[in-house]
Design brief:
Layout lengths: L3 E7 H4 L8 E7 L2 E5 L19 H18 L7 E8 L5 H12 L5 E6 L10 E10 L1
Parallel strand pairs: 4-5
Antiparallel strand pairs: 1-2, 3-6, 4-6
Helix pairs in contact: 2-3
Length: 137
């Protein structure tokens, strides 16, 4: 692994009742060039237009695709992802959002924080994720 992932785990072990499968870690030790991404939402990066879906899975796919695209544009890869903060407007979407996010972070083990909020910047958004990546020296 590029960065030291301290105490890696999978959410299927810590939340067995929720049928999740996310590779996460308790801490990440990284050195290099840090990429701070603004919170990514289910919209097109180039146009800021929302995707035409109110499905949490489809929205999460778009959010994670945006994160991957921006990290790659900055010269990194998803393996450089160190931290995500997931904002949800409805706790009932948690499993669907985290399962979908897990497809993009398999084997990466970033640290993760999840927060349920009253609303996001646009009422149709169900999920927003901000991310931090570090390109190693």
């Amino acid at each position: 692994m590029i960065h030291k992932r301290h105490r890696p785990f999978n959410t299927r072990d810590t939340y067995p009742e929720q049928k999740l499968d996310n590779d996460l870690a308790q801490a990440v030790v990284a050195r290099g060039t840090t990429i701070f991404l603004r919170g990514q939402c289910p919209q097109e990066i180039e146009t800021s237009k929302n995707i035409l879906s109110h499905d949490p899975v489809e929205q999460t796919h778009k959010v994670m695709q945006n994160i991957r695209q921006l990290i790659e544009e900055c010269g990194g890869t998803m393996e450089h992802l160190c931290k995500v903060v997931v904002y949800l407007t409805d706790v009932r979407h948690r499993e669907a959002v985290y399962r979908t996010m897990g497809e993009y972070i398999r084997g990466v083990h970033p640290v993760s924080t999840g927060v349920v909020v009253t609303a996001l910047a646009r009422p149709e958004w169900l999920v927003e994720i901000d991310a931090t990546a570090v390109i190693p020296d």
